[in-house]
Design brief:
two-stranded parallel sheet; elongated
Length: 177
């Protein structure tokens, strides 16, 4: 493969090459930004298993950036949920998936299909549009789309508050779930 050009490799092969290049420097941290983009589901699973195995073998931490909640649920230990460039919730995978505390996290989880749902169950879309990051609204960026927004949400960006032992959320107005 040494004489081949990158365009001659499959997407999965290119991702493996990038992982090999990253590990060759013996890093203590690998930042993997959407590592499974543009590969099919089979290759995606193989890549994630490879990353998981190699990081354990070489004692390397991985910062995994992804929109795929299934990948997060299976491979992450800790999660930071971001909206409009800010962390709105952080905690363990269990806390985030079983006890979401920020309205965006709740909406995000409700908008993803689940295998254990009844076939007639409908997805709940997140109403509205994401904010223009060049003209971010004052206060909580999610407030125009939030069911539980109160007047304070329009004016003040909420700080992360502890909602569990290892769980923080940037919202204190949402009712307990």
């Amino acid at each position: 493969r040494l004489d081949q050009y990158p365009h001659q490799f499959s997407g999965g092969m290119r991702q493996r090459v990038m992982l090999a290049i990253a590990l060759s420097c013996q890093p203590s941290l690998i930042i993997a930004d959407e590592p499974t983009t543009a590969v099919d589901v089979t290759i995606q699973a193989q890549l994630l298993e490879l990353i998981s195995n190699l990081t354990q073998e070489f004692q390397v931490a991985v910062l995994l950036i992804t929109h795929n909640l299934g990948v997060v649920a299976k491979y992450a230990h800790r999660v930071n949920v971001m909206y409009a460039g800010r962390i709105v919730e952080k905690g363990t995978v269990h806390d985030i998936f079983h006890h979401p505390s920020h309205p965006y996290t709740v909406a995000l989880l409700q908008s993803v299909p689940r295998l254990d749902w009844d076939k007639n169950e409908k997805l709940v879309p997140i109403e509205g549009q994401p904010p223009d990051l060049l003209r971010r609204p004052p206060g909580c960026a999610f407030h125009p789309r939030c069911t539980w927004a109160v007047p304070a949400c329009h004016d003040t960006w909420p700080e992360l508050i502890r909602v569990g032992e290892q769980h923080w959320a940037a919202c204190d107005v949402m009712p307990a779930m």
